[in-house]
Amino acid sequence: MARITLDHLAHAYRANPRTAEDYALKEIKHVWSQGGAYALLGPSGCGKTTLLNIISGLVRPTRGRVLFDEIDVTDLPTEARNIAQVFQFPVVYDTMTVRENLAFPLKNRNVPRDRTARRVEEIAGLLDLTRVLDRKASNLTADMKQKISLGRGLVRPDVAAILFDEPLTVIDPHLKWQLRSTLKEIHRALDITMIYVTHDQTEALTFADKVVVMHDGAVVQTGTPDELFERPAHTFVGHFIGSPGMNILPCRVEGAIAFIGNTMISLRRSYRTLSGGERIELGIRPEFVRLQPKGAGLPVQVRRIDDIGRARIARVEMSGRPLAASVPDGISIEGSEASLVLDPNHVHIYANGHLVAGEANGGHGA
Amino acid sequence: MTKTLNNRAWFFVLPVFLIVAFSAILPLMTVVNYSVQDTFGNNQFFWNGIGWFQELLDPSSQLGEQFLSSLLRTLLFSAIILLIEVPLGIAVALSMPREGWTVALCLVLMALPLLIPWNVVGTIWQVFGRGDIGLLGWTVNRLGIDYNYTGDPIDAWVTIIVMDVWHWTSLVALLCYAGLKSIPDAYYQAARIDGASRWAVFRTIQLPKMRRVLLIAVLLRFMDSFMIYTEPFVLTGGGPGNATTFLSIDLVKLALGQFDLGKAAAMSLVYNLIILAICWVFYTVMTNVDAERERVEA
């Protein structure tokens, strides 16, 4: 059981990194608290597996330290850390039975035989593997094998954290959900820190209490699923999380007014600190953009309305820029002319991709 | 569904049939023909029935005794070769680098012996082992060990075995290396996390994953060593005495040296049957292992 601290960590796979581009993982400071369920979310190649391998000790970071509680483990080998890892493709020892697989980490650590046997039974019960304990591990389906991998981590009573590297990639869709709820149950039952790497936002948001979003080797935001949804700190987060993602519109901001083409949008806060050279964008989630029959609001052209089950999403064009908006129940749109109403509380301004806080509207601006 | 019958298809089979008949079936039938006849020259042949075979398989006859001892010698040689080259090949493969420029260097160096023609290998070792001008023979003699592969049967065997190990261990090593390379990194990482020792990693991951290529390596090395001819022929000529006369050398002596066509034909047929039998056993074992694996994985 431990709190894991990443202290100014950075990693480059090539020797003598100079520019920021050389780093597969840019400097990161983060604390994973004991017992938390975390997700590390990002597209392929964003550095999340590198980060995971640094925590488990398979990769030694170029710079910075890894602390378990207060102990520096940066130079400790994997086997000396109390870490378990479940990989993308199930790793089982083919020649062994499920029971031998589960007992393997304990056998390697010279745990007495009777204690091993008890522990294996216990974990097998937890993972619902009791029925297959005496079968050959190679004989089982992918989801069973992933459970065995997980079980090999769980049998060690001293394990501080379990790291998952996209563990559901090769699992059949209808079993993914089951396996994920098994993970949640185990997390609740055992109070173990879990760090779950994935590129699938649904997996991340349903599994984790806290999601760390990575992009291009850097952490762009850490927060609860709600925070990521309500207040994306980076246009990447806005775009990557949510389906459809956030509308990101290039704009010009003067005080508390944003101009998108010829359309004027008044803002809740004013942004007077923006200098001229930045790329300014306005972000708003489709959920906070309401489509209405032509009238008050911003005039738009409706291209298409998609029914995505729980809601209707309209694809519209505003001053020539595509936008997604939600269509409230009971509203029907005639023709292609309509209006948009933006919820001003959820309009965010981004400079070079990063959220700008702005100041409360005072005597200046509109 | 009805199959389209088209007799023109035979024209496509015919060339293959002709080539096989010309290169394999006719010569084989000639051998069968010789094996049941005797000749006293002048291209005159006499029917001998299964006489040669009876003599060949009767250890109390001179021919039978000669055949049996050659066969046992060859089997012993193959056994020694497998016992040395397979473990050694695995060990070499395990200690080869996994990445970097040294990989290419290692692969090239390892492949070198495999590229040398067999009679050249024999010549190299023939000179290398000589006590007067050969570096190996000279050095060993200087160390105070009496070594003479042309006079001492044990020395001759040791030289041939060392030569074969030098020539062919790379093949086993390269095959094993390919097997090792195909193991995903995650297995090693998982083993490290599970605290597995080096030996445990070998036993539980590497060896099981290498099993298929190892079967192929064993099969190839068995067949090659069982039919070995050129290298010992060049090195020792089968001597001293008959100490290194393997089946193939024996057969060539009989057929081309003494021109005993009947005996040689009978011997080569039996030799052929032995190889077929052993290969069949190997094949059955291998396919059974695979079938079991598939059944288990299904």
UniProtKB/TrEMBL annotation, chain A:
Principal cellular location given in the protein's record: membrane
Pfam families recorded: ABC_tran, OB_MalK
Keywords: ATP-binding, Cell membrane, Membrane, Nucleotide-binding, Transport
Gene Ontology molecular function terms on file: ABC-type ferric iron transporter activity; ATP binding; ATP hydrolysis activity
Example of a GO cellular component annotation carried by this entry: ATP-binding cassette (ABC) transporter complex, substrate-binding subunit-containing
Transmembrane segments: none
Gene3D superfamilies xrefs: 2.40.50.100, Nucleic acid-binding proteins, P-loop containing nucleotide triphosphate hydrolases
CDD domains, alphabetized: ABC_Carb_Solutes_like
Membrane topology summary: Peripheral membrane protein
Compartments (UniProt record): Cell inner membrane
Name assigned to this protein: Glycerol transport system ATP-binding protein
From TrEMBL, chain B:
Keyword Repressor: no
Chief location of this protein within or outside the cell: membrane
GO cellular component terms attached to this protein's record: plasma membrane
Superkingdom of source: Bacteria
Alphabetical list of InterPro entries matching this protein: MetI-like, MetI-like_sf, Sugar_ABC_transporter
Keywords tagged on the record: Membrane, Transmembrane, Transmembrane helix, Transport
Location in or out of the cell: Cell membrane
Any coiled-coil regions, as ranges: none
Membrane topology classification: Multi-pass membrane protein
Pfam families tied to this protein: BPD_transp_1
Protein name per Swiss-Prot or TrEMBL: Glycerol transport system permease protein
